[in-house]
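hey
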């Protein structure tokens, strides 16, 4: 656990550190990868998203892995409606982390929101779409930009008039017109 925390919070390897930290947190909080255990994990970790920096990142990454398991093992479950509520609540609780100035918060939140959005049971608000877009095209670490673009790509399509995507120098519009 300590080594995973050091790797992730050093910022030197966000993706590798997040993977290790997610597995450690998931193993600690989930007795098995059953559907019920994954849902319980999401519910148990959601309140920790407002904790201290380390605890909220660990919680976000644990929710990410539980969401991944639910998506890939239990997609056709008869109880999907039950766990979609837990995932939607977690998604809303992740938004302050996404809006944070801390790269580790942004990375953990974007990664968790990607897997939650894959379930198609949660519709993000325009500020979430705008933030993912800004992180994707921003000057942050390449791993953060990659995860933000991945999360952005799976979000439900919204009307352009609902979302104000930043394009301060007009480069995005020029690239779009060139296509």
């Amino acid at each position: 656990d300590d080594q995973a925390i050091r790797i992730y919070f050093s910022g030197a390897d966000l993706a590798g550190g997040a993977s290790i930290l997610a597995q450690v947190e998931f193993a600690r909080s989930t007795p098995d990868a059953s559907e019920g255990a994954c849902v319980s994990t999401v519910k148990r970790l959601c309140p920790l998203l407002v904790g201290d920096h380390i605890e909220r990142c660990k919680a976000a990454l644990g929710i990410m892995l539980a969401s991944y398991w639910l998506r890939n093992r239990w997609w056709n479950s008869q109880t999907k409606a039950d766990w979609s509520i837990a995932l939607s609540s977690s998604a809303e609780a992740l938004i302050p982390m996404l809006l944070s100035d801390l790269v580790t918060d942004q990375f953990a939140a974007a990664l968790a929101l990607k897997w939650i959005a894959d379930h198609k049971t949660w519709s993000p608000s325009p500020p979430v779409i705008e933030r993912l877009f800004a992180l994707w095209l921003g000057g942050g670490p390449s791993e953060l930009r990659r995860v933000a673009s991945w999360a952005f790509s799976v979000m439900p399509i919204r009307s352009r008039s609902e979302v104000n995507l930043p394009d301060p120098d007009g480069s995005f519009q020029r690239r779009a017109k060139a296509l």
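The mean pLDDT is 85. The two ends are 47 Å apart (CA to CA).
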